[in-house]
């Protein structure tokens, strides 16, 4: 059965490449540099199991999730195997998996080399997280503050500051805000058009990035939205009999991405000792979807793909 990996495939391809750009862009860092850790905030695209430890209906701790993971068991990852946050730390040579911060089996070494605060179903909009009772943006930030306290107890204040300063810190939010909260219900549409709603989301993202800076993060990568209308779930729900990409959703993603890029550029200028980077995961994945033969793939790959969410 094909499911979430198909939705995430373009994201996998560009995730690690983009992160290496972040690192190399800061102070002309050599390509062979090593990173002490990786920190991730986000939603189901990168959640490695936090939702297992909270009261929410948004859980994936049952088959067929995890069928291709080590041991073939579900782990709380919204995938049949690893998710991009795992692939990132593996590619950077840090460790095989990025553990969920709420995992009670975390070790001191896990904390030193990075953890994951992402929660499936989360968004920039507080309403998005409240609807399904998962870790909101503000809650993930509170957990990060708790993490810093623990890290200082283990590594000391000076080493903790170095780790936070040199660690790629990643944000992956927004898909649930657009597809579920805005287009999936009446509450936000009754008060915002899509442009003003995108402004709202960008304002939350900007505040969050600046909060991370205040807490010591200096290498921050903020992922834009993929072509949401081409996700298998949206093509199935909204794409008609032929399961075409939903242009309305793609336009919303582009609008948000444009506004987010401008805002991050503005924030970045305020903090010359840091680097806050917008990472485009819209254009390359869309090209892959529209021109699969260019990448050695059949056009039937996306036409026949399905998702469980």
Protein model, in words:
InterPro entries: GDSL (IPR001087), GDSL_lipolytic_enzyme (IPR050592), Lipase_GDSL_AS (IPR008265), SGNH_hydro_sf (IPR036514), SGNH_plant_lipase-like (IPR035669). This protein has a 4-stranded parallel sheet with strand order 1-2-3-4, with helices on both faces. The radius of gyration is 19 Å and the shape is globular. 45% of the residues are buried. It is 48% helix and 6% strand. It has 309 residues and is an alpha/beta fold. The chain has 13 helices and 4 strands.
Comma- or semicolon-separated keywords:
4 strands, 4-stranded parallel sheet, disordered N terminus, single chain, disordered C terminus, GDSL_lipolytic_enzyme, alpha/beta, about 300 residues, GDSL esterase/lipase EXL3, 13 helices, SGNH_plant_lipase-like, about 5% strand, Lipase_GDSL_AS
